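Example with several molecule types.
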Amino acid sequence: MSPSPVRSPAVDAPPAPGGKGRAREDAGSQRSPAEVLGVKGAASFVAPAVGIVGVFLIFPALWTLYLGITNLRLTGLAAAEPQVVGLDNVTQALSDPSFLNALWVTAIFVLGSAVIGQTVLGLGLAWLFRNWHGWGRQALEVLVIFAWIIPGSVVAFLWIAMLDGESGTLNALLPGGVGIEWLLTYPMLSIIVFNIWRGTAFAMLLFGAALNTVPPSHLETARLAGAGAWRQLVDIVLPTIRGHILTALLLVSLWTFNLFTPFLLTRGGPNFQTEVLPIYIYRVAISQGELGFGAAIGAIMLVINLAIALVYIHVLSERAA
Amino acid sequence: MTAAGAAVAPGNSRRVVKSVLTRIGFYVMVLLLGVFFALPMLWLLAAPFDRTPTLAAGVPDFTFDNFVRVFENPFVLPSLRNSLILALATMVLVVTAAALCAYALSRVHLPGRDILLYVLLLFSAVVSGTAAMVPLFLLIFEIGLINTHTGVVLVLAGGLMPAGIFILKDFMDSTPASYEESARVAGASALQTLRDIVVPVVRPGLAVIAVWTVVQVWGDFLIPFILLRDPELAPAAVVMFNFYTEGGQANLPLISAYSFLYSVPVVVMYLFVNRRYGFRFYGGIKR
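Resulting structure tokens for the full complex:
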């Protein structure tokens, strides 16, 4: 899995006397595995992490699926004795215009900001940076990374300030004193552009690493044959890094699909126009107290997440084979 | 030069024009991208130092007054302290538990170990705070940890743990077991061996997980937002949101100086990691 998001360099580790393989063989074949750490010892070492993950990650996931088929509410009769209502919540959701609206808004948000925006801009930046090592490149790269690591509630306010209708920087720069309230007039466009700005760094870093895997000799051959930058990109680079592109697409889509940050900019408004599914769940379950229905929406999100993740795993295993 | 130059000119000059145009196009594109990424951030650099900050970014009428006055607000210091408590507690929990687990998985061959690890990693990506919002809220409520930092730390640790184990196991796998075997023969306990032999060797991995966890928790909004009720317990992410959404005229001297103070730690940590280890290796780890 070459495009692993968790690839690590193990920088300062001293090289093993017989290489990496030997240590593994030793532990596996000739010597008993209990020599360094007994099975009991291993179990007690594993226990804290497994306990935390089991209780606070796996259990909530399974519980979502169960809660999703009940009519549990935060207060009232259904809070004391929730009834199992089967797939009623899902049927109810599918006929609920505000759920369908949230689903549609989420689809546009993911498509616009993740699939198209971050992936294309990230690839574009990595392509611009491929042979450019001046201070300008470093400055731009640091800006893109800062946009990614500064806390979400701060960047949200930076964008609220910039897009403000009366005194925002954007309106001040546009000629003619237009005074547009961007977040009210173009709310979807605003959160899409915001999220492109916020998240492009990941795709940029991933594609930066990917472009290093393109053999320079192939590009050189193409250049000698008279191919311009565009032809090199389309004919040589894109086919070579196809796996990285799929990785970026799937991971970035998964993250964007689950992103709560638009709430910090618009709180889902105006008039639910930017109410993505995470905000919808928050409004229905926490603000209005319909826990069972909220959990059902959560379960639908889990299933979609799982589908994206399984496609990702399938792609990785196909590439490995 | 003249005669020969004139003869070659048509093709040549077209190539020169084309390369000049390409160059211009390149600079225009870089300039536009630079403006796009820099524009929102100008305010964060200018407004905190402005005597009368507005929503527009501009050259500040320079002062440090905002940073003095920001601490007069009763929520500022406690919220930054809360963020620090949450970040450090989660970091200690994730680094310790993930290191123990990764070490055991790396040295003992449990059946199905690698599959288990992948399934865990998959789970941490699929079970997001938003999709599991309701059960997380109910679980923390039922076990009496609602409105406590402990509840927030446990939920965040659960989400970050699988990636931590995964990365640390990679580090552990690439260190030889022979030193540990010697230590064990000499009579050291498993825990002593881990502390004195393994930890020094995998320190870069531990540092990566530590910084990564702190940055994740420092910026996280949703989990403390749904699990904490008392404003006194709220971390900076939530207090920042309250500052600009509460009614009335936004207090820009307060918000700007506070944004700056709240952002500086992650920027410093980025610069540290970038200088020490090079950021690009670790870029992908961030969720």
